[in-house]
Amino acid sequence: MANVLIKNGVYRNTPVVNVSFTLVKDLQTGANGNYVTVKSNGYFGPDHDTVRIRVNGMEDIEFEGNPDPVVLAVAETDEEVMERIAERFEILHQMTRATIAGDVRAMIVVGPPGVGKSYGVEYELEKSGLFDKISSRKIKYEIIKGAISPIGLYCTLYKHSDANNVLVFDDCDSVFQDELALNILKAALDSGKKRRIHWNSDSSMLRREGVPDCFDFKGGAIFITNLKFENLKSKRMQDHLEALQSRCHFLDLTLDTMRDKFLRIKQIFRQGQLFNDYDLSPEVGEEILAFMDTNKNRLREMSLRMALKLADLTKVSETNWKALAVSTCMKGG
């Protein structure tokens, strides 16, 4: 096993500075920030064997010896991380355009909340539907947020069943946890030439809405979610999800650490898109990002929304916004 030097960390309020441990798991992100899992080797007493030491990021750790390349990913520079993230979001735009054109049947987009997943998809959809809006034609896409019942899903698929229609399920995770809804989606996105969906129970809702008990679905679908499918405990539901994934292109935006999320925010700031609705000087924008970087493990979330909350506070008080942020945006504030 490889050893890791903790240059600056904390374990249960105990500072850990320049101490070597046996590495168990590389840098990970949890509810309370970044941490490295190590063998205590008696450092914290006989009752503590495998422990998680909290750190700010890769800058607080140093690997010794020859770590297993399968376990330990090569450290990236900030610029390399931002380039990787930019490439993933460009793929998101390309795949959305392909779904609109009918070249791609379905796509699942996975990433943490507040990093701009929905924005990229909605941008391409609105651009494609601009002429339909101008000419008052039926819009060929619909974005569904929140919960949806299986029969509601069936009706929605029918209303957008024509070719080149696109349904977007944005944080609509109830469809991933309902067996009937998953069976409907599997039929709608099947790899065969004809994708016929059936509703085999009598329904007054279908009669009221004028929806037949079977139809062919020719449209496309995009699922935007924060859900990690592998974390679902039900083996039966995992089997359904695997079947759904086999029918879809799967895009993980690879924003797995606090550092990744912060650099995504920094990337949007560099592009001039983060505070474009605010009358902020570049210096104040830089100050907000510096504040987020310094306090990344104390903020309630690391997201574009958090950056905008901090920008709101600068309008409340140009001189005291940081104190307001400590009270309203931080854990234990």
How would you describe the overall organization of this protein?
With 333 residues, this protein is an alpha/beta fold. The chain folds into 3 domains: 3-64; 78-252, P-loop containing nucleotide triphosphate hydrolases (Rossmann fold), CATH 3.40.50.300; 263-328. Helix content is 38%, strand content 21%. It has 11 helices and 14 strands. It has helices spanning 78-101, 117-128, 130-134, 150-159, 179-188, 204-209, 235-246, 258-270, 282-294, 304-316, 321-328, and strands at residues 3-6, 9-11, 14-16, 19-30, 33-39, 50-55, 61-64, 106-110, 141-145, 166-170, 196-198, 214-216, 220-225, 249-252. Strands 6-5-4-1-7 form a 5-stranded antiparallel beta sheet, with no helix packed on it. Strands 9-10-13-8-14 form a 5-stranded parallel beta sheet, with helices on one face. The longest helix has 24 residues, at 78-101.
Q: Based on CA inertia axes, which overall geometry fits?
A: globular
Count of separate structural domains: 3
Structural class: alpha/beta
| Helix share bin | 25-40%
CATH evolutionary superfamily of the largest domain: P-loop containing nucleotide triphosphate hydrolases
C-alpha end-to-end distance? 40 Å
CATH class call of the largest domain = Alpha Beta
Low-confidence segments, given as residue ranges, are 66-74
- Report the count of strand segments: 14
CATH topology of the largest domain: Rossmann fold
Total DSSP helices: 11
CATH architecture of the largest domain: 3-Layer(aba) Sandwich
Oligomer: single chain
